[in-house]
Amino acid sequence: MSVKLISINEFSATPKYQQLVNSILESIRFGRLKKGDTLPSINEVSYGFEISRITVEKGYNELRKRNFIAAHPGKGFFVINDQVEQDLKILLLFNKLSAHKKQIYDSLVAKLGNRAAIEFYIYNNDATQFCQLLENHKKGYSHYVIIPNFIEGDEQALKLINKLPKDQLIVIDKMLDGITGKFAAVYQPFEDDIFGALGEAWETLKKYNRMVLIFPENSYYPKDIMQGFINFCNSYEFNYKIINDIRKSKIRPGELYLNVMEDDLVKLLDMIPASGLKVGQDIGIISYNETPLKKFILNGITTISTDFSLMGEKAGELILNNKKEHTKNPFTIRLRASS
């Protein structure tokens, strides 16, 4: 077998070993590789694609584990099984790569199992980059799974999204207004979510005299979060303030701070010791999106968050069951010592 039958894209976010696995399975499925055919050596693949031997070994070991290839001492690797049931090919477009997005990716991959080959790309909240990726990968997929979250340029992206076959489209995390037709979605209604979560914790939060939302300018986070925050404060007659940069503000007793960006949480935590104020008593902190570390910082930071693993799992279920329903993903508040 020539290395030309293998395809590895250095710009893809899909791990290279997984691209190697997917590429070989696709060649087997379409008859370009047959039972008994020899695979390129580890050195040949490593040299041809400028990837490490460890990466190639990991890909080949995955194929051996799944009983598609075998190794013969002195002869190399051979195809031993040509019955590939990988009937799904997914184009996955995420706005960014973060710990939360990785949870979505991992649970989606786990749910789809060996039935799917996934090509994964990051467009960095850039609508132009998103459109370029979609233009270059608009054919040959069974499903298109996208997170449509742009700093600007929604209309440009929307035109391309609406050209996709809607029975193959799954929108996750953020719903983009203007998508037509019947398509599947697992999403967060951001405005309602933050309103409901803060309302649930009202008895705990009402000891503070003002709530401060830290929402940076040009943030990729939906403005719906800000509107839900404003709606809550108005409905509960809670004094509030919205700031762009915590470092330009003074931390004051009686204030409850809500951050959406992880960087702003770090800045806030850095400022607290000099203030002499005690978190959970003099001031409060609520942080957007749960992470494992937030359970331990300052004896626990209160978070409001969706379940990202469940989001990926539900997206996988929609694909496997060929459903076109819209599902709101659960959103909860976890009260801890910081509030």
Automatic annotation (TrEMBL):
Gene3D superfamilies (UniProt xref): 3.40.50.2300, Winged helix-like DNA-binding domain superfamily/Winged helix DNA-binding domain (1.10.10.10)
Pfam families per record: GntR, Peripla_BP_3
GO molecular function, one term: DNA binding
PROSITE patterns membership: HTH_GNTR (PS50949)
Domain (HTH gntR-type): residue spans on this chain: 14-82
Transmembrane portions of the chain: none
Keyword field: DNA-binding, Transcription, Transcription regulation
Organism phylogeny: Bacteria, Pseudomonadati, Bacteroidota, Cytophagia, Cytophagales
Family matches, as InterPro entries: LacI/GalR-like_sensor (IPR046335), Peripla_BP_I (IPR028082), Tscrpt_reg_HTH_GntR (IPR000524), WH-like_DNA-bd_sf (IPR036388), WH_DNA-bd_sf (IPR036390)
Name of protein: Transcriptional regulator
Source organism, top-level taxon: Bacteria
